[in-house]
Task: inverse folding
């Protein structure tokens, strides 16, 4: 199914599915390392998944090429770069920046960010007829085709409505969990696939903060192990969103986990091709 429930933006080109690259512009769970921003992944140069502080690692030329942004949820570490991206891009692109998210996410951004108080309402700038920003509502399990890839949103278990994404290219499958606590949805979606080449999954806290993980609906290494044990298989698991103030301990605990598939730490600056 191709994104049939909402209006297709004009800019969407239903070209064939292509090989994909995912550039990591941010995969930290906090600030504290100037070389590692928060959630921001660039797919095939024109699709951004999340717009956290990793946007600050982009130059204007890179930002000008982005036509689509998919947001997992409203938390600042996933959206803080969006206002600056919209502002910068409008000076090099006449077409709007399309921002795809669940309706509740869009409502929060309209009310609390693009409200002419915190930041201008770019859905009406430079005009309502030709704005710099257009929101598009998406729903779990309704596919989109953007940037030569098929993207399938799915719900995860976090403190606000949150989506993960499966991305299918012509040669592989990559999934991003975004922020999540234990969830059956993630394993059900991935176990239904013939092959999953890459999974980017979070471990925000170390095990000493397991209660904080449960309170805020995140994972720590012991909870990550429980979640990964639900997976049939995955060729590469990349762990992300570590909090910088406890990175060393969290990395140690992740390195101690043993699975049948490779478990690696994701870094800003990496490019995953699939
Ligand atoms: Zn969050």
Result:
């Amino acid at each position: 199914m191709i994104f049939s429930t909402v209006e297709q933006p004009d800019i969407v080109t239903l070209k064939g599915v292509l090989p994909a690259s995912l550039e990591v512009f941010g995969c930290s769970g906090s600030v504290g390392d100037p070389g590692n921003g928060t959630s921001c992944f660039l797919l095939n140069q024109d699709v951004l998944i999340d717009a956290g502080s990793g946007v600050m690692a982009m130059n204007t030329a890179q930002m000008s090429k982005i036509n689509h942004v998919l947001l997992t949820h409203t938390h600042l570490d996933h959206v803080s770069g969006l206002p600056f991206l919209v502002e910068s891009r409008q000076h090099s692109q006449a077409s709007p920046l399309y921002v795809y998210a669940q309706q509740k996410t869009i409502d929060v951004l309209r009310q609390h960010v693009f409200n002419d108080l915190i930041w201008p309402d770019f859905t009406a700038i430079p005009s309502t007829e030709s704005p710099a920003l257009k929101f598009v509502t998406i729903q779990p399990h309704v596919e989109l085709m953007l940037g030569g890839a098929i993207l399938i949103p799915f719900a995860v278990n976090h403190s606000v409505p949150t989506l993960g994404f499966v991305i299918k290219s012509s040669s592989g499958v990559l999934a991003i969990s975004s922020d999540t606590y234990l969830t059956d949805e993630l394993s059900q979606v991935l176990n239904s696939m013939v092959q999953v080449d890459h999974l980017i999954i979070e471990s925000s806290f170390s095990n000493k903060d397991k209660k904080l993980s449960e309170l805020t609906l995140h994972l720590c290494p012991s909870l990550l192990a429980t979640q990964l044990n639900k997976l049939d298989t995955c060729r590469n698991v990349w762990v992300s969103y570590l909090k910088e103030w406890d990175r060393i301990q969290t990395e140690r605990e992740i390195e101690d986990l043993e699975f049948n598939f490779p478990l690696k730490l994701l870094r800003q600056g990496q490019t995953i091709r699939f």
Notes: Residues 103-112 form the longest helix (10 residues).
